C-alpha cells in the first residue's frame, strides 16, 4: 500500500539568502541575488551570475572542508539547517537508516578546473590528492551520509536542470513504496568557474548582462528577456513517511502529493510542449488532483527565448481555460538558474509560498510578451493567497522533465 | 636528499607535521602510527606533496604503505633535489 510522504525539514543556501527565513524574506521583497561576477576573465565583456555570499569556513570545519569542493560544502550547510529543523518533535528522525538522494549536474567544478589547470598549464605533478573525491558527482551525498551516519542508499541524479526535482521525486517514491522511511534529498551546484561559464556562453543561451542594472539581467516571460543567468546554491529537504513523522511528534511542514517525470525524446536541447504537458499531467494524476485544485505554479521559467513560450503553451494545454487565472511565477528572476540544484531551490520557494500563503513574484517583468500571456505575478509578491496545492516544474537539456506537487498537511 | 642531514630533516619534518596536524611534538615518535595520530590518509598525501614544494624535493612514484611516521620519513628520504 502506498504511504504518505511529508516534509519535516528544509534548508537552503542561495544567492538570495543562506537560510530559509532569509530566502523567504527575499522572495517576499522581490530581491535579486544576481550581480556582476568578480574575478572572471571576460571573453565578451561583463559576466553576471547568482552568487552565494557566504563564509564557508564559518560553517564547515576545516578538516572536513579539505575533502569538499564548494558544491559539497553548500550542500553540507543546507543539510545542517534541514536536519536541525527535522529534529523538532518528541524523538528525532532515525537517520541511521535514512537515504540521501541528491541532484547535481556537474559535481566539483572548481576542483576539476584546478586539476585541469595544474595538468595542462603547469608541470602536472601537483594535482591535489583530494581532486577525485572533491570532483565526483556524488561527493555531496557521500559527505552528508558520512556526517549524519545515514546507512540507507545514497543516490545522485545528474539530469542537468531537472536533477534535483528528479532526486526529490525519486526520494518521494522510495518512501511512498516503502523502501525507506526517511530521505535527505535536494540538490547542490557550484559551477561559476571560468571554463564552464565559457562553455555556456558558447551555447548562446545566457542572458546578455544589463550593463546599467546587472541585477535585472534575468527576465523570465518578458519581451526583453535574453536568456538564463547561471547561479549556484543548494537546497535540502528531509522527507519522511507520514506515520513515522506523526509517531515521533514531528513538525510536518507539508506533504509531497505528486510527482511526474518523463523524457521528450525530440531534441537534445529544444523544449517540447508535448513532453512538458505530459509530465504535468502525470504529476496531477499521481496526486489525484484536478488541475483547478492547483493554486500556484513555480515555473521552470529560465528566461530563454524559446523556453518561456514552450512552458506557457504546456501550462495552457494542461490547465485549459483555468490557465488564465492560475498564478505562475519564475523565481529564477531573483536567484538565477541553479542548474542541478534549481528544482530543489524552487521547491523550497514553492513550499514557502504554501506555508506563508503568498505568491512569489517574477521580477523584471516590465515588458509583457504577447506569446507569454499568463498571470506571472509580475514584479511584486502577492500576499493573502488562498492555496492548498502548489506545483513546481523542472525541464532539462536531454529532454528530462519533472513536475512536483506539494500540498498542505491534512 | 636535501642538503640537511638525516637527523636535521627528521626534526624539520616533525615540526611541520606537528604544526599541520596540530599534534604535540612529544607524541610524534617514529613508531607512532598515522592512524593513532588521527591523521587522514589523503591529508597525509596532501602534506607530503606540500613538503616536496617547500623543501624543493622530488619523490619517486611509490605505493609503499605509510603506516608509521618512520615510514613517512623513509619515503621522504628517498626524494631527490628538484631541478
What composes the largest sheet of chain A? Answer: 10 strands, mixed
- Which structural category do the helix and sheet elements of chain B fall into? mainly alpha
Average pLDDT reading of chain A: 96
In order across it, which strands form the biggest sheet of chain A?
Answer: 5-4-6-7-1-8-14-13-9-10
Number of strands of chain A: 14
The percentage of residues in β strands of chain A lies in: 15-25%
Numbering strands along the chain, what is their spatial order in the largest sheet of chain B?
1-2
- Shape verdict of chain A: globular
Determine the fraction of residues in helical runs of chain B and give it as a percent range: 40-55%
Helix fraction of chain A, binned, reads 25-40%
User: What is the number of helical segments of chain B per DSSP (H or I, 4+ residues)?
Assistant: 3
How does the overall form of chain B come out from the CA principal axes? globular
Terminal residue distance of chain A = 19 Å
- Helix and strand string of chain B, N-terminal first? HHEHE
Q: Note the beta-strand portion of chain B.
A: under 5%
Low-confidence stretches of chain A: none
Unreliable stretches of chain B: none
Would you give an account of this structure?
The mean pLDDT of chain A is 96. Chain A is 33% helix and 19% strand. Chain A starts with a strand and ends with a strand. Chain A is built from 13 helices and 14 strands. In chain A, a hairpin with a 4-residue loop joins strand 13 (389-395) and strand 14. In chain A, helix 3 (70-86) runs parallel beside helix 6 (139-148), helix 7 crosses helix 13 and helix 10 packs across helix 11 (305-319). Chain A is α/β, with parallel strands linked by helices and 410 residues long. Chain B has 83 residues and is mainly alpha-helical. Chain B is built from 3 helices and 2 strands. In chain B, strands 1-2 form a two-stranded antiparallel ribbon. Chain B is globular, with a radius of gyration of 12 Å. The interface between A and B is small, with 8 and 7 residues.
Amino acid at each position: 500500500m502506498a504511504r504518505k510522504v511529508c516534509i519535516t525539514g528544509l534548508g537552503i543556501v542561495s544567492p538570495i539568502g543562506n537560510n530559509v527565513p532569509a530566502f523567504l524574506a527575499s522572495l517576499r521583497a522581490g530581491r535579486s541575488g544576481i550581480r556582476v561576477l568578480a574575478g572572471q576573465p571576460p571573453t565578451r565583456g561583463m559576466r553576471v551570475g547568482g552568487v552565494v555570499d557566504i563564509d564557508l569556513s564559518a560553517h564547515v570545519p576545516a578538516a572536513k572542508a579539505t575533502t569538499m569542493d564548494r558544491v559539497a560544502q553548500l550542500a553540507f550547510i543546507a543539510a545542517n539547517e534541514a536536519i536541525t529543523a527535522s529534529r523538532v518533535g518528541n524523538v528525532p528522525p532515525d537517520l541511521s537508516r535514512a537515504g540521501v538522494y541528491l541532484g547535481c549536474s556537474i559535481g566539483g567544478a572548481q576542483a576539476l578546473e584546478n586539476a585541469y589547470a595544474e595538468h595542462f598549464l603547469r608541470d602536472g605533478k601537483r594535482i591535489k590528492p583530494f581532486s577525485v573525491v572533491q570532483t565526483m558527482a556524488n561527493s555531496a551525498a557521500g559527505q552528508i551520509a558520512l556526517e549524519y551516519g545515514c546507512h540507507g542508499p545514497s543516490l545522485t541524479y545528474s539530469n542537468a536542470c531537472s536533477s534535483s526535482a528528479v532526486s526529490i521525486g525519486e526520494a518521494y517514491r522510495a518512501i511512498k513504496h516503502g523502501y525507506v522511511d526517511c530521505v535527505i534529498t535536494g540538490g547542490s551546484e557550484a559551477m561559476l568557474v571560468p571554463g564552464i561559464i565559457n562553455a555556456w556562453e558558447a551555447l548562446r543561451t545566457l542572458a546578455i548582462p544589463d550593463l546599467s542594472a546587472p541585477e535585472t539581467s534575468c527576465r523570465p516571460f518578458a519581451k526583453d528577456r535574453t536568456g538564463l543567468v547561471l547561479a549556484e546554491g543548494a537546497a535540502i529537504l528531509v522527507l519522511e513517511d507520514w506515520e513515522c513523522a506523526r509517531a515521533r511528534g514531528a513538525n510536518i511542514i507539508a506533504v509531497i502529493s505528486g510527482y511526474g517525470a518523463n523524457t521528450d525524446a525530440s531534441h537534445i536541447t529544444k523544449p517540447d510542449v508535448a513532453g512538458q504537458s505530459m509530465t504535468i499531467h502525470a504529476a496531477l494524476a499521481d496526486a489525484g488532483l484536478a488541475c483547478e485544485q492547483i493554486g500556484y505554479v513555480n515555473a521552470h521559467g529560465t528566461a530563454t527565448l524559446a523556453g518561456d513560450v514552450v512552458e506557457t503553451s504546456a501550462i495552457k494545454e494542461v490547465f485549459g481555460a483555468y490557465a488564465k487565472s492560475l498564478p505562475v511565477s519564475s523565481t529564477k528572476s531573483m536567484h538565477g538558474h541553479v542548474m542541478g540544484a534549481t528544482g530543489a531551490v524552487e521547491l523550497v520557494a514553492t513550499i514557502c509560498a504554501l506555508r506563508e500563503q503568498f505568491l512569489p513574484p517574477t521580477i523584471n517583468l516590465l515588458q509583457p510578451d504577447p506569446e507569454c500571456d499568463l498571470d506571472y505575478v509580475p514584479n511584486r509578491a502577492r500576499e493573502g493567497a488562498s492555496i492548498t496545492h502548489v506545483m513546481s516544474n523542472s525541464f532539462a537539456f536531454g529532454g528530462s522533465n519533472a513536475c512536483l506537487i506539494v500540498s498542505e498537511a491534512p | 636528499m636535501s642538503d640537511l642531514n638525516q637527523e636535521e630533516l627528521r626534526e624539520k619534518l616533525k615540526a611541520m607535521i606537528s604544526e599541520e596536524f596540530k599534534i604535540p611534538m612529544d607524541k610524534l615518535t617514529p613508531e607512532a602510527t598515522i592512524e593513532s595520530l588521527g591523521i587522514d590518509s589523503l591529508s597525509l598525501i596532501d602534506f607530503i606533496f606540500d613538503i616536496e614544494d617547500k623543501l624543493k624535493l622530488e619523490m619517486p612514484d611509490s605505493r609503499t604503505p605509510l603506516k608509521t611516521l618512520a615510514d613517512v620519513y623513509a619515503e621522504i628520504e628517498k626524494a631527490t633535489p628538484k631541478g
